[in-house]
Amino acid sequence: MTRSSPTRNPTESESPPGPVLEVEDLAVSYRGTPVLESIRLRVWPYQIVALVGPNGAGKTTLLKAIGGVVPLSAGRVLFCGQPVHLLPAHRVVQRGMIYIPEGMRVFPQMSVMENLEIGAYLHRKSIPERLELVFGLFPELYEKRNSPSKDLSGGEQHMLTLARGLMARARLLLLDDPFMNLSPKIVRRFCDAFRLLSRRGVTLVIASQHVRRILHAADLAYLIEDGRITLSGPGLEVLGNVHLQHILLGSLPERIRQLDPLP
Q: Is the domain of 178 the same as that of 236?
């Protein structure tokens, strides 16, 4: 297993020196049919970790299993050295592991500020500090803080759902396809935000269909096929792997650029 240890200057609560997340022999089944089998991975503090793979490979199920949303058939999940796989999802959130599902919605009739305050319901005393963080990442939210969330653009609503997770004092963010339906410009904004968050002490595990984009940003990446991890390594190393290019991007460079362009 490859470990990447970029230099960080975190301002968040310090994590223990070991992995922030350990997944050991994890398995998930639906009605007796295996969906994930023998998943083993480690995520170190302040990393950006990418989960990539074909549609239906098990990326979303893996994030849900880690976040306590679906039960395990076997294995265990450790967060900052402590087992969390038997805890209910809200207890996992209390510990600082936040799962943000694909297509997560805002509360449309509430203002931007009210949406953010809901995210901080477990940590009311830290609201000023967290607002400084999220408004620094997304100044648009500050400018529209008193506006109904339904009036935000699609990209701004994505920003708000991410910001709401950060208001919960996330130490580990599990993001399922955060780039869905976003323009290339907003995708770049999100990647910049992820890099800044990792420097601030937040660890991120991101499943995405924007393969080239997320692998360029990732310290570490895992390829999932048919419910198993088949490849791991630094993001750019995995991106250059012939097998990944064949199954996800097509074998020709022009095909790769068409599917997932970079400026």
A: yes
Q: What's the whole-model pTM score?
A: 0.86
Task: Say if residues 225 and 57 touch (Cβ distance below 8 Å).
Answer: yes
11 assigned to some structural domain:
no
**What's the pLDDT at 121?**
74
Backbone angles phi, psi at 252, to 5 degrees: -100, 135
Burial level of 162, CB count in 10 A (0-12/13-18/19+)?
Answer: buried
CA 257/CA 263 separation, integer angstroms = 10
Q: How many domains does the chain have?
A: 2
Domain residues for the domain of 141 are 105-166
Tell me if 20 sits within 8 A of 203, measured CB to CB: yes
Domain-embedded: residue 244: yes
pLDDT tens sequence across 137-172:
999 999 999 999 999 999 999 999 999 989 988 899
Tell me, yes or no, whether 13 lies in a domain. no
